[in-house]
Amino acid sequence: MDPVTALRRIAYLLERDGAESYKVRAFRTAAAAVSALPADELATMSPALLQKIPGIGKTSAQVIIDAAHGTTPAYLEKLESADQPVMSAEASRLLGLLQGDCHSHSDWSDGGSPIREMAEAAM
User: Fold this and answer.
1) 8 A C-beta contact, residue 7 and residue 64
2) Domains of the chain by residue range
3) What's the pTM?
4) Is the pLDDT of residue 101 over 80?
5) Tens digit of pLDDT for each residue in 11-32?
6) CA atoms within 13 A of residue 66's CA, in its CB half-sphere
7) Separation between Cα atoms, residue 42 and residue 47, nearest integer Å
8) Of the chain's two ends, which shows fewer C-beta atoms within 10 Å, N or C?
9) Cβ distance 73 to 60 under 8 Å?
10) How many CB atoms lie within 10 A of CB 63?
11) How far is CA 63 from CA 67, 82, 100, 113, in A?
């Protein structure tokens, strides 16, 4: 798995699950910080060296290392395996009836996501 993809997926899942926006931003910032670096170069870096890159913390460094070595990061596995609430039949019926506009908060205001990321997630 590509480290940038792993970091962005974590940010998406955190946001989907209603995590604090600073956590979402932290993983998106980390993805941007390493996006120009080749994965094979990232695989040779230690966690301490990765954390010297502005925007990389302890958790994001471990995600980068795991992904760069071809394994699914444990943090990502945990988020991916979280059970989602099951929608009742009545809620599902109501959802089918709903119509409306989309109201979102991007990082231009008090939201945690850039507009491009929000559009990509919607697609």
Assistant:
1) yes
2) 3-96+111-122
3) 0.74
4) no
5) 999 998 889 999 999 999 999 9
6) 16
7) 10
8) C
9) no
10) 27
11) 6, 18, 38, 20
C-beta separation of 53 from 76 below 8 A: no
State the pLDDT at residue 16. 87
pLDDT tens column, 44-86: 999 999 999 999 999 999 999 999 999 999 999 999 998 887 8
Which residue reads 């009836």 in tokens? 97
Q: For the chain, give the longest Cα–Cα distance.
A: 52
pLDDT at 4: 96
- Comparing CA positions, the residue from 26, 34, 46, 25 lying closest to residue 5 is 34
Buried b vs exposed e over 7-40: b needs ≥16 C-beta within 10 Å? bbbbbbbbbeeebebebbbbbbbbbebbeebebe
Which CATH superfamily, name and number, covers 3-96+111-122? DNA polymerase beta, N-terminal domain-like (1.10.150.110)
Tokens, residue 50: 């990765």
